[in-house]
Design brief:
Elements: H1 26-40, E1 45-50, H2 56-65, E2 71-76, H3 83-93, H4 105-120, E3 125-130, H5 138-147, E4 158-164, H6 167-172, H7 178-181, E5 184-190, H8 195-208, H9 219-229, H10 233-250, H11 257-266, H12 268-271, H13 273-279, H14 284-331
Helix pairs in contact: 3-4, 9-10, 9-11, 10-11
Length: 334
């Protein structure tokens, strides 16, 4: 499509989490360093959080690509499974062969225990990385915690990296998971890119895709991209990809802010409903809380009707009392 027009060898703004295109902002460097330190120093639990599209998956795939030879990693990307299937998937990643349909969850757990103990004698470091961990339930996370019970006097025999959206901490803060939270020794929250990072990120990806020449995006275009994307890498990719496609269609070699505005107007409402919602600065929970705060206002008319009725009743009773006293005095009834 537009690759030849802009002299690109490949798509620079693909949405796949390609480690080769990782851009290491200061935040991404720190996050990767903590993951490496936590795993290699055998700290047990490491937690990485970040908003949708912030680059979490690309980071963990980068670590897996460059893992040391003494490590075995199980990467879990489907978290919407039963606790038994979760343990079963970990076993399969570690190449543990068994007739899983015939095994109970406890039997699978025992298989993992045996495997972890056996491999620890050979100096292997076993790691379980769970992406989208915020979708796990309390039961699933408790099963994972039980795996980390195996330890020596100095090290954990299994390292676990939990990766997810900020809601993951809400889950870990529940009373049922306080034992797991106490075992988290390293954690990091991945922030969006700054404006300076956003410029470098775009140029970094263009360069890796083979682009050579003058800046492809004007300064005003970069400012508009940052304004709309809020520094979220995935949204930046969508905007830039659509901008190049639109520029190609119009025969424009240099992308300006007008193209970016046209792209965000035509494409983003259709292709990025979640990101658009995120731009508004309200999460689902915030919207629910706001709706709940509005509920008393909906009840106000009923409350005022009750108060009005009580007031009228009190006034009526007062009037009747006055009239009765007047009648008694007037006609000397007593």
């Amino acid at each position: 499509m537009y690759l030849g027009y802009y002299r690109l060898k490949e798509d620079p703004f693909s949405l796949t989490p390609n480690p080769d295109y990782l851009f290491l902002s200061e935040g991404h460097k720190e996050a990767l360093a903590r993951i490496q330190f936590g795993i290699e120093m055998r700290k047990g639990f490491v937690v990485l959080t970040g908003d949708v599209g912030s680059g979490k998956t690309t980071l963990i795939r980068t670590y897996i690509k460059n893992q040391p030879p003494n490590q075995k990693i199980s990467l879990i990307v489907n978290t919407r499974v039963t606790a038994k299937n979760l343990l079963q998937n970990i076993c399969k990643d570690f190449s543990i062969k068994a007739d899983y349909p015939k095994l109970s969850k406890d039997s699978i757990l025992n298989l993992l225990y045996e495997y972890i103990l056996q491999n620890s004698f050979f100096g292997e470091n076993l790691i379980v990385i769970i992406d989208e961990a915020h979708d796990l339930g309390v039961t699933h996370l408790e099963e994972v915690r039980l795996l980390t019970n195996l330890e020596t006097n100095t090290n954990k025999l299994l390292q676990v990296v939990l990766v997810g959206q900020p809601e993951l901490w809400d889950l870990l803060n529940t009373p049922e998971l306080r034992a797991l939270k106490q075992r988290v020794q390293l954690q990091y929250h991945l922030e969006p890119l700054t404006f300076s990072d956003t410029k470098e990120y775009i140029n970094h990806r263009l360069s890796l895709a083979g682009y050579k020449g003058k800046p492809l995006f004007t300064q005003e275009a970069l400012q508009e991209i940052f304004k709309i994307s809020k520094g979220v890498p995935r949204v930046i990719n969508v905007i830039c990809s659509n901008a190049l496609a639109l520029g190609y269609g119009k025969g424009i070699k240099k992308i300006d802010h007008i193209i970016i505005k046209e792209v965000t107007k035509e494409f983003l409402p259709k292709t990025l409903p979640q990101e658009k919602k995120m731009f508004q600065g309200k999460s689902d929970r915030q919207e629910i809380r706001e709706e709940n705060r509005l509920l008393p206002e909906k009840k106000l008319p009923r409350v005022w009707m009750i108060l009005l009725f009580l007031s009228m009743f009190i006034i009526l009773e007062f009037v009747i009392n006055i009239l009765s006293q007047y009648v008694i005095k007037k006609f000397n009834l007593f």
